[in-house]
Amino acid sequence: MAVRRPLIGVTTQTLHAIDGIPADLPTSWVMNQRYVLALAAAGGVPVLIPLLADDTSTLRAIYDHLDGILVPGGVDIDPAVYRESRHELLGRIDPARDATEVTLTRWALEDHRPFLGLCRGLQVLSVALGGTLWQDISQERPDSTKHDYFPTQGWARDHLAHAVDVRDGSRLSDAIGSGTVTVNSMHHQGIRDLGLGLVATAVASDGLIEGAELQGGGFAVGVQWHPEMFKSGEPSVGRLFEDFVAAANRQ
Fold first, then answer.
1. Does some domain include residue 217?
2. Is 228 one of the catalytic residues?
3. Domain residues for 77?
4. Which of 2, 50, 119, 234 falls 20 to 30 Å from 184 in CA-CA distance?
5. Catalytic residue check, 213
6. Is residue 239 part of a domain?
7. What is the DSSP string of 36-81?
8. Are strands 198-204 and 132-134 parallel, antiparallel or unpaired?
9. Structural domain tally of the chain?
């Protein structure tokens, strides 16, 4: 008998939200294939989710078939989502993605459906629970270490940029171990006020929250780095994807 493989929804991004995309290209939804490949390697069946922010009945019908939700990295979250005005260094935004991901995240948390957020996905997890963000870490927290090791500036996506301390006894530590882990870093925004019900599970040396998860039940985990860029078992990944897929398989 074949082993059941859980369906994992992966949110997408509007193509035109990405810098350098010609305006005359048809509106499209896209996502980096590394997230899909990491999930498939861990035993999940990835399904790309369209940004149906204005069609919640269809979005809900898609969601109801899924065993877990993964929110990947991408462009900045519109600060209007967390009731703030735009900072001058806010980057490109994707309002349809914001609305879709916040809705899916809240549904998943309400239903105790496994959730994994990566980079932007950690921020979405926090914002969906009432949290706020630093819109540009380097300007709003000038004493912070460097976090914006962007590929567009010549940094490799798997560049190990800085260390984080992982909280012992957390779901994250179960997957990657506790203590100090060195991670890649491709973000200029970060968690300022953590969302209600979340606990910080990884922190950088400058105090910036790099990992968080929901207290008290279910698999709802987010990290600020990009573990999809590394092989399973490497220090900043460990069993993160496998543990997420296993939780989804118990739905």
1. yes
2. yes
3. 7-249
4. 50
5. no
6. yes
7. HHHHHHTT-EEEEEP--TT-HHHHHHHHHT-SEEEE---SBPPGGG
8. unpaired
9. 1
Contact yes or no for 158/211 (Cβ under 8 A) = no
Q: Is 119 a catalytic residue?
A: yes
Say whether 93 sits in a helix, a strand or coil: strand
pTM: 0.97
Q: What is the pLDDT along the chain (251 residues), one digit of tens a residue?
A: 567 899 999 999 999 998 888 888 999 999 999 999 999 999 999 999 999 999 999 999 999 999 999 999 999 999 999 999 999 999 999 999 999 999 999 999 999 999 999 999 999 999 999 999 999 999 999 999 999 999 999 999 999 999 999 999 999 999 999 999 999 999 999 999 999 999 999 999 999 999 999 998 789 999 999 999 999 999 999 999 999 999 999 98
Q: Characterize 199-219 residue by residue with b for buried, 16 or more Cβ atoms within 10 angstroms of its Cβ, and e for exposed.
A: ebbbbbeeebbbbbbbeeebb
With b for 16 or more beta-carbon neighbours within 10 A and e for fewer, the 77-110 pattern comes to bbbebbeeeebeebeebbebbbbbbbbbbebbbe
- Which tokens in the block code for residue 197? 């019900």
Active-site annotation holder among 162, 187, 188, 226: 226
Domain assignment of residue 236, yes or no = yes
Among the options 101, 210, 213, 228, which is catalytic? Answer: 228
Out of 119, 147, 162, 188, which one is annotated catalytic?
119
Structure tokens at 44: 């999940």
